[in-house]
Amino acid sequence: MSEVLISTRENVLEITLNRPDKGNALTPDMAQAITAALKSMPPETRVVLMKANGPDFCTGRAAAMPAPGSRATAFDLRNAISDPVLDFYEVLREIPVPFIAAVSGKAAGVGCAIAALADVAVATETATFQVPEMNHDIAPTLVLNALADRISRAALARMVLTRDVVPAVEARMLGLIGITVPADGLDAEIARVVGQLEKNSVPTLRGIKAFLSMSPETSFASRKELAALINCVATAEKFR
């Protein structure tokens, strides 16, 4: 059984985490499969949707630490542990069209980061979010890197240092996710959000995504120029 299910429905690339008996904890093979699908998605793709089978969205990362008694340099550890996850987060950030996540159950560690990296994360009201790494004396800098520009410093420090389990409604207030719905309303809300985006053209969706990605790092003058440029390019496609 594949741990990640990839399918294309009309103009939507659907990615389903399919390791429910392990809480959909992300493995290197899963990350590689998702990366390959994103890098080869058809140019007419309008939306990327990530969801999960089973009760939990993603409870973290499958064990990646060397076995007790192993010898490894910092370089070895970076190649084996840090870079693969950081590269995966970068791929998610660089999705050129809207990235939607459907979250239920637990979203911890990597799962919390994926939800935060989505452009619109829709979560059930019973979903929870946590950065639990410090419970195991692990410095969660990889998750910190994913969340640093998503929520405030105070909220980020609270999640990392206290390891609190944050309910979905509070996660929405913190800016970690975008929408909360009753447990039985997730599929309908995802269908609504995705359906809205399917009505738009690829140039418009890519233009908006580019602005959302680039504008936080630019000055007012640069944002003004970027806004004009993207608007003109996206609109010009309608007159070709």
Automatic annotation (TrEMBL):
Gene3D superfamilies: 2-enoyl-CoA Hydratase, Chain A, domain 1 (3.90.226.10)
Entry superkingdom: Bacteria
InterPro entries: ClpP/crotonase-like_dom_sf, Enoyl-CoA_hydra/iso, Enoyl-CoA_Hydratase/Isomerase
Pfam families: ECH_1
Family label: Belongs to the enoyl-CoA hydratase/isomerase family.
Protein name listed in UniProt: Enoyl-CoA hydratase/isomerase family protein
